[in-house]
Amino acid sequence: MSSKTYRIGIDVGLYSVGLAAIQVNEDGNPVRILNAQSVIHDGGVDPSAEKSRGSRRLQSGIARRTRRMRRNRKKRLERLDQLLVKSGFPVSAENDLEGFEPWILRAQAADGFIEDDATRKRAIAVSCRHMARHRGWRNPYLSARTLLAVDSPSSAFYDKLVENAAQMMDGQLPEEEATPAQIVRDVLEYRQGSAAIRLRKSTAKKKKDRFALFPEKMMQEDNAYELRLILSKQSVPQDVARELLLAVFQSQSPKGSAEKRVGKDPLDPSQPRALKASLAFQHYRMLNMITNLRLVDNGVERRLSVEEKQKLYQLLLSDTGRDKKYDTWTDVASAMGWKRSQLKGVGSLTSDGEDRVTSKPPHVDIIEKLNDIKDSGLRKRVLEWWAEATESERESMVALLSNTVDIAKKQDDPDFSSAVKFIDALNDEDLQKLDGIDMQQGRAAYSSKTLCALTQQMLTTEDDLHDARKHVFHVDDSWRPPQPAIGAPLGNPSVDRVAKIVNRWLLACQSRWGNPVSIQIEHVRDALSSAATLAASKSAYDRAISARNLEKQETKDTLRREMNLSEPHESDIRRIEAITRQGGKCLYCGTPIEFTNCEMDHIVPRKGPGSTNTRDNFAAVCITCNRQKGNVPFAVWCQTPAAVQRGVSLEKAVARVNDFFKESKSLRGRQATAFKKSMIMRLKQTVADDPIDNRSIESVAWMADELHRRIDWHFNGGASSHEIESKVQVAVYQGRITSEARNVMRFQAGGDFHFVGGHGKTRLDRRHHAVDASVIAMMTPAAAQTLAERMNIRDSQRYIGRIEEDEVDWKQWPAKPTEKYRQWLNNGERLFALINDALDADRIPVTHWQRYSLGNSIAHDATIKPLLKVPLGSAIGKETVNRAATPALYCALTGCADYSPTDGLPENKQRHITVNGTVYGPDDVVEFFKDDSAQIAVQGGSADIGNAIHHARVYRCYTLNSKGVKKWFYGMIRVFQADLVHARHDDLFSYPLPPQSISMRYAEPRTAQAVLDGRAEYLGNLVIGDEIDIPMDRELKGQIATCVAFFNELPGNHSLIEKWSVDGFYSGSRLRLRPLHFAGEGLPKLEDVLGVDIPADIQKILVRPGWLPSVDTVFSTCPQVIRRNSLGEPRWKSRSGMPVSWRILSSEEA
């Protein structure tokens, strides 16, 4: 390891991570880019679920639960059969029953006692077995034992069944309390001679609207009623009947299955970590925030006294109503007898770094959830139970609602008895509503026992959390809750992807250069959210933006037409919107105002530079009021003699706000209510907003905080506050800070970054992620604060349309730069030159995160296709033989004496084959896949496996002409996951592929034959995400010629168009490639900036479907396949067995 002084920057995007390590000298000036790269990843999205944006975790979870369900179902049915045989009831094969016979037998058994002993026992066995396969739905809160007391059908689904039966029988109703089987039998008898009835709705889209007798589902209690009636009518002993009913409806709840995997409390390893939804954690969290508040007394900040903490704690605990009395810190300060200006610490991190003092006072989360239940009757019952329950009983209810315990296992637990009794008394509809309560997820760092002890210590002493830990558990000042490893899974696929990338790269940097001086992370909004969440939020965001833009355009048209403004600005739009919602009156004094004689004012100013530029802090006011008010909060100014003389008062201003939106289109409904409430809070605020500081700059997203904590723990886990000089400083910034820093850096240097396409950041060149990481690596707290102030002043001046008397133009901010800011600017100029040098020399690689493990995606599509069935003795073409449903069948067919590799099998009425020990004659049918897509046999049908390709093997093959001359070509064999199932613990890239494998049968025929005949030389393999460097010095035609010519005309490094990434295997002979360095998302902006038309071929290559060259075309150019290590360096050798780079030698090199 060669130790160096360097700073790290990490830029987290939606589907990318920018990484940069910048070496600095003793003065902190950048001298070298040690490493910079852009890593592109898929956000954890399963390639087979692009439309739904479902993650691999989600898709594999569905498959895993389906397999578990089928496995458990098989075992359950086997246990039922064993019980039936043991009880003397014969079990017959399902194939022995035809059509509606099971329903008829069930109906007969429910009608009355069957005299014939054999018939009776058969009817009981058939009823139990048939019902066990069509049980219906039961709320997971209810155990199977609750079905023992069902004495009548009562569900809404049963009523729907009766209604449907009456419709099928021309209005004739079934008998009262008829069982489902009796209803089916009655309908069949009534419609005898008519078209067959449909019992259940089809799941197929084209057939789902067809009328069916049964509703979409039935309740288990309705079927349990029928089974109890059958067993009673047939005089089955009570103990046997009970055992049979429980066996039929037996189920295993997944709730509580994770209990045994819960981590341990680091302060008390004998205890499991508590739920964040638990009351113990809610009370601890509340008090932890309270101890982090500070009160300003006579200009000095101090901690809250014990009495003040206890009073505030009880105040927040007592605020349990639906409409919170203490919804803001202003309300809390007023109730405590303080001024809001005295209360400090809101927004700061708590001492354990686990949480922040939120902008709203903390309340007990479960109370808020229960108050949000929409059903007023259920809400009243739940809250009444809650009010009478003990603390222990409430914790039990929280555990049940959090789905962390199995209610069936807690039936006899005295701590859960009250909660279980309450839940058992609810009907199914109420249970579903209760089950829909969204409880807080996750586990606290400590156990309930530890949380209670810490809460008590903080409540009864002057200790904050840090001191409480020391006094109760006798730990030292440096102790902190241990954090998981940086790359440990969080459960969010997108975050897990980022965490793994960052973890491997940080470890590689640490191994090579030692610990960095600082690590600074920048992330965009929602960058650490799942792809599905992003897709949903983006859709809603796009709709809102579209509506907002339409409204803006209407406002601009009005201003052009009525105010003769040639090009209205943002300040004009905000002003006319404010005038409209205020009804054409000054918000402060009520004087009529118009567009030409009013100004925009900040209701509450900010201490220091800048202002709070949210819409609820802007008011359209007359010029006189604006001049008199000056730079003080409205609530202060309205009490001055000058304001009183003008008729200004807080009450009148609030009344005007309450009259908002009667004719305004800008906000409606809940938005309007929330806006008015927020603006009234602004009018009542008596102190200026806090100045811009680190709280305004650092990200507060919980996942960004989680990444921050993990990295900090990795590098500083054992460091104390006294070792601050040796600690690695870790910070997380919002994306807008980096954007502004990049713009300032460009302006200072008097040029642009040398991206392909030029003109700044167009997002065409993927290396911009690494550039952003380099910029954030050199960020300092002082520079970040100055940039935040600059952006704030810019927004303020744009919104109000003028420069305030005490301000300078935002472009000149800061008017008097500090020494630290000047140093940052100088460092920026040096970094700018280093970045451009690296861009020009192609020293910033772009890599795609790859998956080498076997389970890359789902094994096959969910859609099951029917098989083609052909008599064995008929003629079977070669293509049909190739589509044999099983490898064994393929071997048997190709092993026939009359099989021809070119024509297949001729008609032969004497043909016999043996497949897995079964002999087939000429009249027996054998099964084939119907179409040419790669498939496997599944559940009596077939399913496509086109997305389940693990890798492709590339070969140099030859054919011999009649003169014995070799003609060379390149081909590939796509290796499907299905062929590697038994190679999970072997080398997947060298596992042999027999002729009957799916991979060989669906390969390009000439390549597969060459491999089988020994006419192929293995060259290497390709995996999705591989980099291929393709020389473009030959004469080019078609799409690729257009592409190369287009990028050669753009400013930047022209050699980058030779670097491509493998995006898929389009067919047996063609690849899907995309330019490694260029992204389709940058084309629209590039078109706007350069004013050029983007050729259709460029759209196809960068967006869809990509470049689709043949394997022969690509490898005839003698390309290189580049594999890189964690630092982005080409890997040509590997001691650990990792895939290495490889290349095709030209004829001169060979």
Automatic annotation (TrEMBL):
Molecular function, one GO term: DNA binding
Cofactor: Mg(2+)
PROSITE patterns: HNH_CAS9
Domain HNH Cas9-type stretches: 533-697
Protease found in the keyword field: no
Entry-linked InterPro entries: Cas9, Cas9_alpha-helical_lobe, Cas9_b_hairpin, Cas9_C, Cas9_Topo, HNH, HNH_CAS9, HNH_nuc
Coiled-coil intervals: none
Any Gene Ontology biological process: defense response to virus
Protein name listed in UniProt: HNH endonuclease family protein
Organism expressing this protein natively: Pseudoscardovia radai
UniProt keyword annotations, A-Z: Antiviral defense, DNA-binding, Endonuclease, Hydrolase, Magnesium, Manganese, Metal-binding, Nuclease, RNA-binding
